[in-house]
Amino acid sequence: MRAAALAEAQRWIGTPYHHQMSVEGAGCDCLGLVRGVWRALYGPEPEALPPYAPDWSERTSIDTLSEAAARWLVPLDLSQVQPGDVLLFRYAPNGFARHCAILSAPDRIVHAWRGQSVCETALGPFWRRRISGAYAFPHI
After folding, report:
1. Which one of 35, 63, 67, 140 is at 20 to 30 Å from 101 when CA atoms are compared?
2. In this structure, what are the phi and psi dihedrals at residue 65, rounded to the nearest 5 degrees?
3. Nearest CA-CA partner of 69 in 97, 111, 90, 48
4. Is the CB of residue 9 less than 8 Å from the CB of residue 37?
């Protein structure tokens, strides 16, 4: 499953950033990339996604992204993470998860970043210290 997830994520490289979209080649945000990988692996998404703003967690005081990941993905200890797994990131030390990516190598991630197309970048100190969770796609 991990190899298939990573291969699908890498197919999205070059897809322009577009908030709330999830269409390979046309546009996606970070969550849209993970949603697209889910659809390629399993078919329809497991739940409808409400419209969301870039600051959605701050508005609701609910860690929506982490809660959804825990419902549909398999939580992992960071020591178990492998290429093809999903990482969640928070920007503030005690903040909620607001970004996600797919690990492509021990030191690389595939993700959509505001103002950037889907790309593979280093999982350097900036991102490492912001990891808030790790998840595997389920083996259904």
Report:
1. 140
2. -65, -45
3. 97
4. yes
Q: Which helix (H) or strand (E) covers residue 3, if one does? A: helix 2-11
Written out in words, the top-level CATH class of the domain with range 2-136 is: alpha beta
Spell out the residues 6+ positions from residue 94 whose beta carbon is closer than 8 angstroms to its own.
Answer: none
Residue pair 124/109 in contact (Cβ under 8 Å)? The answer is: no
pLDDT average per 10 residues of sequence, the chain (140 residues): 97 97 97 98 92 65 89 97 97 90 98 94 97 93
Q: So what's the pLDDT on residue 131?
A: 98
Domain ranges within the chain, ordered by starting residue: 2-136
How far is 27 from 91, CA to CA, in rounded Å?
23
